[in-house]
Amino acid sequence: MGHARLEELMQRGTDFLGCEVAVLGGAMSWVSERNLVSAISNAGGFGVIACGAMTPELLDTEIAETKARTAKPFGVNLITMHPQLSDLIDVCGKHGVGHVVLAGGLPPGGAIDRIKGNGAKLIAFAPALALAKKLMRSGADALVIEGMEAGGHIGPVSTSVLAQEILPSVCNDIPVFVAGGIGRGEAIAAYLEMGAVGVQLGTRFVCATESIAHANFKKAFIRASARDAIPSVQIDPRLPVIPVRALKNREMENFAAKQREVAGLLDTGTVEMAEAQLQIEHYWAGALRRAVIDGDVESGSVMAGQSVGMVTKEQPVAEILDELMEQAAAALESRA
Ligand SMILES: Cc1cc2nc3c(=O)[nH]c(=O)nc-3n(C[C@H](O)[C@H](O)[C@H](O)COP(=O)(O)O)c2cc1C
């Protein structure tokens, strides 16, 4: 009975995504590539490629390689500030990618039209109720609300508060997926009961057997508890940086130094604010690569959400999804 109720609650989400369980594998730069993305989709969830700073050529290859590994639907996450955003959208269009997720700020109007013109569905992040409504008016087909418990770049508000503020007002009009801090199925059941059509998880998939993250990166996740995943600190009030949640390590000092360097460039007029912010983003991409790919978990950035405490071992994606669905179904059954 729990499983039937779970299926019913996820129905709008699974219909929208075209998969079996309404769980998006949140795009994670360097981690969400062909192997993990296809494994999530093959296991019945919805994998999402993290384009990050990839060139259009690299994205083209990544999509083709993912298609070679799964016949199931998957999505592509693009960052709005990427200088070649239009070309990246066209690469998705060329491959007939059904769902494009736009991250990193409000999507420019031209990007929305281009994505929809290619026949894809647009999923956008809504960091507040007013912005959720604005995104709906602008043509978003679904929303993700992501709380500050999440790994990677974060907003200031927790998942539980965003869910209460946004779900009751918009959940009948647009499918909403909840992200940030979800480590077990009981939480999935709760957000579905509040009106979400599904969820997005990142941290929980990092230690999947199919994830190419370096063994050191996975080990750091398995050892860490929730309190180890802390947000970065803004050093200079003139240089607003979006906080990033990652495991505490030496890299945090590197980031402080990088902020001082970029703030200095701003002071001397060597760079404008947009360029300064782009430099910070490039810093993150490099620091994350050092940790995920090279395994340098001391001077690289080990981005992780607070749910990292619930990551206890390496296990196949299918097992992770089964566990989550069993927990969610049991929770729903016990409440019936
Ligand atoms: C290592 C890592 C890298 C991430 N990179 C991205 C990214 O490139 N683009 C993006 O939109 N979100 C990124 N995220 C956020 C995830 O897509 C997802 O929304 C988030 O992990 C969900 O919260 P959780 O970590 O509590 O499960 C990243 C998260 C992690 C842990």
Automatic annotation (TrEMBL):
What Gene Ontology molecular function terms does this protein carry? dioxygenase activity; nitronate monooxygenase activity
Protein keywords: Dioxygenase, Flavoprotein, FMN, Oxidoreductase
SUPFAM superfamilies the record matches: Inosine monophosphate dehydrogenase (IMPDH) (SSF51412)
| Highest taxon of the lineage | Bacteria
Q: Which Pfam families match?
A: NMO (PF03060)
Q: Which InterPro entries match?
A: Aldolase_TIM, NMO
The answer to keyword Oxidoreductase applying to this record is: yes
Protein name, please?
Answer: 2-nitropropane dioxygenase
Organism for this UniProt entry:
Sphingomonas piscis
